[in-house]
Amino acid sequence: MTPPPIHLRDLTCTHERHPAVHHLSGCFAPGSLTAIVGPNGAGKTTLLATLAGLHAQFDGTIDRGGLRPAEIGLLPQASTLDRGFPIACADVVAAGAWGRFGAFRAWRQADAAAAALARVGLRGFERRPIGSLSAGQFQRVLFARLIVQDAPVLLLDEPTTGVDARTADDLLAIMREWHAQGRTVIAVLHDLDLVARAFPETLLLARAPIAWGRTATVLTAENRLRARLVAEAWPTHAEPCAVAA
Amino acid sequence: MMRELFYDPFAMGFMRRALAGCVALSLAAPPLGVVLVLRRMSMTSDSLQHGILPGIAVGAMLGGLSVWAMALGGFVAGLAVALLAGWLARATNGREDSQFAGLYLVALAAGVAIVAATRSIDLTHLLFGSVLAVDDSALLLIAAVASIAIAGLAIIWRPLVMESFDPFFLRAVGGRGGVWHLAFMALVVLCVVGGFAALGTLMSIGLMMLPAVAARHWSTELPGQVRAAVLMALIASLAGLLASYHADIPAGPAVILAAGTLWAASHLAGRRESVLSRMRRPHLHA
Questions:
Q1: Residue of A67, A85, A132, A133 best to disrupt the B interface, most CBs of B under 10 A
Q2: Which of A48, A209, A231, B39 is least crowded, fewest Cβ atoms below 10 Å from its Cβ?
Q3: Nearest CB to A53: which of B169, B172, B220?
Q4: Which domains does chain B have, with CATH numbers?
Q5: What are the residues facing A153 on neighbouring strands?
């Protein structure tokens, strides 16, 4: 599986004209395993949403190399979903096949869903309502949906937030498996030890890119301090950006 | 005795028509209600009830008291309110319920003004209808609306459920969330309008929402909740009509009160999350 590279050229993603990601250029190489780190409010989630085609307010260009939307798998932050929704695990997981079957064609995904649930350590959970799951189990279900989706590019927003060490290890093993299969994996993370241990590439973002490259050269004390100095709030009356597009 | 209680009332033609209308509505409306509850839009049906008023008034003004003219007017007005609210919310990043609140107030005021100016229709009749005066034309309207609503919901079911649970995922895989939402709202409007002429808007919304709200006490999965809601709506229709016949109370409110009774019973003795289910059994080993 060889996904195309994803090129960003002078990308600025905005909310109400305020930049959440500011003048970012670079490339997610095919098959790369990249961590996006940075303080809260640094634009990490906005960047993922823009890459996934969910955030339309941006300047600059994103070249996805012709990937269809369904070929980009997105793991949303678990907190954005309604965990009380009356739906069984297998139905959530089977929805990963949407890109292949669409809204109306019959899908027989029971076997694929059961296999994906087994892969994430939830064998036999097919008919359990998601409301009965722990936070870690719910995150495993969302990973199983990505397994069924089988996308060459994966965007993961805080995959290990709010889960215990064992679950984090299991999920990391799945991310590494995706990496080994040649998929491009991009994950927003706050656990810098995990990043240093398992992610070859890192993008350190603080609205503006601080550094992007080999993890060891990015996560220096100096870079981390620079990232931390970015104010969380933006000024209400900001001037138009002077950097030429 | 049983014959007097259950059979004799339906020897009357008007009771049979009323039952047929209620059954059609009981099959079509509750599934829509279940989805409305899941989308946190329970009050939307109530807004629509007011929102369709100006359309019904204009329909009555232009087409006389023809059920079809009023229904068409109501459908256009309700659809305008629903689409405008959905569009305003999405285009300006606002909350849909607040847009609904604003629009239905304007629509209600416009409707009352039109009704007062033209004396075209009796407002009480609009809200409460007269179930026992369902004529062929009204029955046909209800049947048509129910058929479209059931078929339409079946068609958009999969994307609609996915959009309700995880709208970002659906958009991310290219599933166009807004289209399904608007199609769903059109079906809700259709159902609210379809019930109004004979049954009154209170009744069509009551059969849509009360069983839907009660359904979560009976199943942890969506299909089970839909089945439970439809079953409760059917029971409420039958019980309400019988109570209305024997106790001589208006049929519309009787059906809604029956549905309300089932709702209360679900709270008390439903299979899950009810008072009874919480107290009766010892906890499990694991």
A1: A85
A2: A231
A3: B172
A4: 16-279 (1.10.3470.10)
A5: A72, A184
Q: Which residues of B touch A81 (CB under 8 A)?
A: 165-166
Chain-centre distance for alpha carbon B18: 16
**Would you call B14 exposed, middle or buried from its count of C-beta atoms within 10 A (0-12, 13-18, 19+)?**
middle
Whether pLDDT at A233 is above 80: no
Q: What's the whole-number mean pLDDT along residues A209-215?
A: 95
The residue assigned the tokens 């949407």 is A98
**Is B170 in CB contact (< 8 Å) with chain A?**
yes
Calculate the alpha carbon distances from A142 to A122, A134, B170 in Å: 12, 13, 13
Q: Which two tokens stand for residue A173?
A: 């093993």
Q: Mention every residue, 6+ apart, whose C-beta is less than 8 A from residue A64.
A: A4, A6, A51, A72, A153
Collapse the DSSP code of B284 into the 3-class scheme (helix H, G, I; strand E, B; otherwise coil) and give the result.
Answer: coil
| Nearest chain A residue (CA) to B218 | A86
Amino acid of residue A161: T
Question: Which of the four pLDDT bands, split at 50, 70 and 90, describes residue B121?
Answer: low
Please give the average per-residue pLDDT across A6-28, as a whole number. 92
pLDDT confidence band for A82 (50 / 70 / 90):
confident
